[in-house]
Amino acid sequence: MKKNKSLIAFLSLMLAVTLLLSACAPAAPAAPAADAKPVRIAVVMPSATTDMAFSQSMYSALLAVQKDMGGPTKLEIKYSENMFKVPDAAAALRDYATQGFDIVIAHGSQYGSSVEEIAKDFPKTTFAWGTDVNTFGQPNIYAYTAAAEEGGFVNGVLAAKLTKSKQIGVTGPVEVGDAKTYIDGFVQGVTSVDATIKVNKTWTGSFSDVALMTEAAKTHISAGADILTGSSQSVVGSIGAAKDNGKVLWFGTQADQASLAPALVVASQVYDWTAMIKEIIASRATGTLGGKVYTLQLKNDGLKISYNSAFTLPADVKAAGDKAIADIKSGAVKVNP
Amino acid sequence: MTQVFTQAVFIGILTSAIRLATPYLFAAVGESFAQTSGVVNLGVDGIMLVGAFAAFYITLITGNLWLAVLAAALVGLLMGLLMSFISVTLKAEQGISGIGLYMFGLGLSSLLFKVLVGSVQTVAGFDTIKIPVLGDIPVIGEIFFQNSLPVYAAFLLVPLAWWFLDKTTWGLKIKSVGQNPAAADSLGVNVDQVRYFCVCLGAVLAGLAGASLSIALVNLFQENLTAGMGFIAVALVYFGGWKPSGILVGALLFSTVNAIQLWMQVLGVKIPSDLAIMLPYLLTIAALVAVTNRIRQPAALNKPFERGEN
Amino acid sequence: MPPESNSAVSKSQNRFAIDWNNLLFQAAMPVLAMLSAFLIGAVVLLLLKVNPLTAYAAIFADVFGSVSGFTQSLVKATPLLLVGLGICIAFRASVINIGAEGQIILGAIGATSWALIFRDWPAWLLLPTTLLASFLAGAVWGFIPGILKARFRVNEILSTVMLNAIAVQLMNMLIRGPLIDQAGVTAGTYLAQSERLPEAAWLPRLLTQSQLNIGSIIAVVLAFLVYLFLWRTTIGFRIRAVGLNPDASRYAGINVAFYQALSLTLAGGLAGLAGAVEVLGIHHRLLDGITSGYGFSGIVAALFGGLHPLGLIPAAWLFGSLLVGADKMQRAVQVPSALIDMLLGLVVLFVVGSSYLSKRWSIQRAIKTAKVEVEAKG
What ipTM score was computed for the predicted complex, to two decimals? Predict the structure, then answer.
């Protein structure tokens, strides 16, 4: 019967510890002041809020908007990260809508079917999803996408002006989505300056395999590339490889990647969702819940080329970059996705 | 560039292959210890992640790489103790314990990264060391003797492991425990103790495998940095027939083909990238089929030992 | 107080009471193990400055207190059950199937391709044949390691790990090539997904405002069929014999290699069906990340179910609830999702560890009781 006693002892201990834990648990955060009801936004993202890429771009934008609006008492933000499993994301979306969030953002192109289904059941909730261009004809769905090829083109122009070896390496994950369109735009940008420059592409077949991405970058470097670029959260490996080498330059996309290698990152195409979020919030106040497609472009400041201030860019190169930006904005240059 | 296969490409492929093989060697040689003693540890990937984070974090704070290596080994040891407690003392189903350990390691390393570091940063890892004289030999020197310390260590580990398993009494004990634990027990070998030792040694090496990634090869940490490398390492143990030399062949084959496919892409060889990426996996299976595998696995592999039952 | 507090005397007098106690004891162990894991989780939550009670209450409130949470747990349980059934069959033949991830992908590819090729067929014909196609596609991915093991003695862990990676690339290739959604090409987004499947191929939904579909019922029916197959047919008997004692089976004239390959093939087929349920029941298209890691969590569910097809039904649901509840907890208290992985890992470790303890303790109790009875009689 010794075992029985130990079992009981164990149970009692568990109970005691649980009670103790709950006793010393921090008090629930004070409820926000009841006078001004905050706008409530929930976002579901496929990777981590710290991925230096797609998910982080949205999360930082939300935080920026929150700051502009006056903090959590004006804009409440909740997030679900690493929701690469679509059924889980769907559950999260439905749950947020049920909890009465005003705006629910499904930040992944794989969430489309789920948004289409769920939005029907919550006609008073605003849904926004991307990247895609389909609102499914529903009045409470926004779709958003990024014309990644535009910034790709600008990066390509800058890269073509800077390369000495006339060889540029692209490290991509899988040739789909904005990983593809960014790189297609980049190649067009390079070619527009000098068609003899070789742009070699590698794909690792994974959005997360950092080790292989690193080795792909090293392969480009030993093959003679002096400039690298690439897309997905695993490119931090490529940037690391460039940093190890010390002479190879890097062009970023999705988020500002300058902090990873301040001496080598020339510029990053940054997805800036703040204007879109603000407009969605403003439209909601006037009764419009959706039905529109947003495309981040250079023209509407949704895409920004963020030059790294720690990197001294020759004036003529910067001028070429600025001209490319102006040309794309004016429509003089058309970049094909 | 008319000629695709130049000397530079040849050197490039082999230097890549040696770097790529490094974490697999640490992890797979480690796993072979555990398996030789009869324990399948599927949690290698989780241990690698925790080791990688520990090494990265210590480097980030202190800048001391040796302290970082020590930390990776230490957390590897702790993970090993956890695995051995569950699978040896509590005699749990090994495959499933390993998957539990993997999930735990994946979660723990990501959580610590989120809380302690926040966003991706790079660190200054081990530098390349050119070995005097040997490093100056043309081609060979460039391929083999201009690497970072962990890379050398991984390759030195192979003969060391062979010597340990084949030439020492401890090695014999380990093998006897893996082949016939009941007999070993009757001869006075403490089966549980040997298995604890092997699982922990394997876990320490898995921790170092993670460190070799985070402070030598990629010099950063990101959630799920290993992206399933630990599972490939377990597969390589089967490929190598539980022999360090076989593991070396397997790891080099896998990484060389991987390096070749990267070069094929860089050089613009017309082949769909997805097919190119499949190559190392396909060829590893094909190689094993071609060389019919006659090695018998440790007879007590995946079987918990309980005195008086067998 | 739990019923275990009965005195030794009353137990030795009543056999039935002892058996009940034993059963309760055995059931209590996994629960205790889970509680211990959650206790460690509570400490971590406190370190993150989150009230563990609020966090854990969210899990229960969602799974047991809301229709959407409950149906969602069934939705998650379905692929776990299907994959787990395959794991059971393979495990009974003493083969560890790590390849379910790849088999799910193949099943999803099979279902998508079939439904798109024969998109004009009526539902009564299209749906069953699509399910069959997914079963066959998954079975092929299970047959390969099976035949490699039988013919070339290639260890199944090696081949399935490699085949998982190959399946991912195969899907990448199809999804950005022949199967890509043309709408995405026109719009210039090039998303990694197929075109939407014809409605005739969708698995009918069981409830509005929920993804619960007829696939769950199919899975439960299959669980009974697998049980009958393993325990009531000759082939099933041989599969189990091979697993229990391969040497003895060989002497008895059973072709061990054949039955191991067969079990892997069937496991592949069942995992393939899980892929079909995801495609036809939930997304209605093939997309990146279709497996949701069910290939691995299915193994865990199979363990929770004692590697028994019928035990799997509640086990898959329990594990599904845990996954759904954990997600809910992340939303409720906004902790990093990594905490959930860690917590689930601990739960698996503790539960798998406790199974031996409960077995050993119950044996010791039985011995002790027997002694008491002998003494009483003598």
Answer: 0.90
Whether residue A206 sits in one domain with residue A319: yes
Query: Range of A259's domain?
Result: 148-264+311-330
pLDDT of residue A255: 87
Assess A182–C contact: CB distance below 8 Å, yes or no: no
CB C68 to CB A1 under 8 A?
no
Residue B189 has pLDDT above 60, yes or no: yes
Between residues 52 and 111 of chain A, which touch chain C (CB distance below 8 Å)?
78-88, 90-92, 94-96, 98, 109-110
A3 within a domain of the structure (yes/no)? no
> pLDDT over 90 for what percent of chain C?
51
Tell me whether C54 touches chain A (CB under 8 Å): yes
pLDDT band at residue B294 under the 50/70/90 scheme: low
Q: Which two tokens stand for residue A14?
A: 């568990």
Average pLDDT over residues B174-179: 93
Residue A69 maps to which CATH number? 3.40.50.2300
- Please judge whether B266 and A212 are an interchain contact, meaning their C-beta atoms are less than 8 angstroms apart: no
- How far, CA to CA in Å, does A204 sit from each of A228, A237, B100, B271, C351? 15, 12, 28, 14, 37
- The pairs formed by A299-302 with CB atoms below 8 angstroms and a separation of 24 or more are A299/A328, A299/A329, A300/A275, A301/A272, A301/A275, A302/A146, A302/A271, A302/A272, A302/A273, A302/A275, A302/A276
Question: Per-residue confidence at C18, pLDDT binned at 50, 70, 90?
Answer: very low
Task: Spell out the residues 6+ positions from residue B5 whose beta carbon is closer than 8 angstroms to its own.
Answer: none
Query: Domain B7-290, what fold?
Result: ABC transporter involved in vitamin B12 uptake, BtuC (1.10.3470)
Q: Domain tally for chain C?
A: 2
Tell me: do A324 and A230 sit in the same domain: yes
Q: Are residues C311 and C344 in the same domain?
A: no
What does residue C291 show for φ and ψ, rounded to 5 degrees?
A: -75, -25
Does the pLDDT value for residue C8 go beyond 50?
no
| Residue C55 placed within a domain | no
CATH number reported for the structural domain that contains residue C212 in this entry: 1.10.3470
Alpha-carbon span C305 to C319, nearest angstrom: 10
- Can you give the residue range of the structural domain that contains C266? 66-334
Contacts of C340 in chain B (CB under 8 A): 107
Q: Do B16 and A261 lie within an 8 Å CB cutoff?
A: no
A326 shares a domain with A189: yes
Show the low-confidence residues of chain A (pLDDT under 70). Answer: 1-36
Q: How many domains does chain A have?
A: 2
